[in-house]
Amino acid sequence: MSMQEEVIFREAIVEALRKNIADLDVKVEPHKSLWYSLHVSDSGQIEPTGDKPKRGHDAFEQDIVVFEIKGKRDVPRVVIETKVYRCSTHVAITYSNKARLLKQVYPFLRYILALGGMDRVTPKLIKHGEFFDGIMVLEFDSSKKSIGEKDLGDFIDFIRREINASRKIGRAREGLLSIKAFLRPVTIIEEL
User: Fold this and answer.
1) Euclidean distance between CA atoms 42 and 35, whole angstroms
2) Is the Cβ–Cβ distance between 21 and 163 less than 8 Å?
3) What is the mean pLDDT of residues 60-85?
4) Does 73 map to a domain?
5) Count: domains in the chain
6) For the chain, what is the radius of gyration of the CA atoms?
């Protein structure tokens, strides 16, 4: 596995999402940082200061972020972490922990792991990816720089649902929805 193959995979996802979800008033950005910690200092100031999260300063850089455009602010709705050909236990634990930290700052955020060129979601990813909102394997051919058409269509539909889920969670947390039930359904798609 080369880093270049992961870049190709990520760029294919970004391009497809930009073409297919713009109607949701969102923008898709690679390599954007999000706060993982906001706190009040001993002097009573919220830290870190400033409007732009910066990697290494209480912020993690994300592979892909889907932002909702809200006036002068962009609200992160979905983070997509990308991996190709393999995803180790260490990676699953690390990124699941990142998802947990980000959700403390952005409680409506959806965190997705997109896997290219793998045949299945492994048991270790399910065990150690407890803070992922979804893990999806996409058929990927780095030589053609393409993702399988059916998988890509399913992924785009999935991301559209996750954007809407994030919006509803945000509105619910602010008391803007009259809610009868709050459910976190699990969907498992088995191989044939």
Assistant:
1) 20
2) yes
3) 94
4) no
5) 1
6) 17
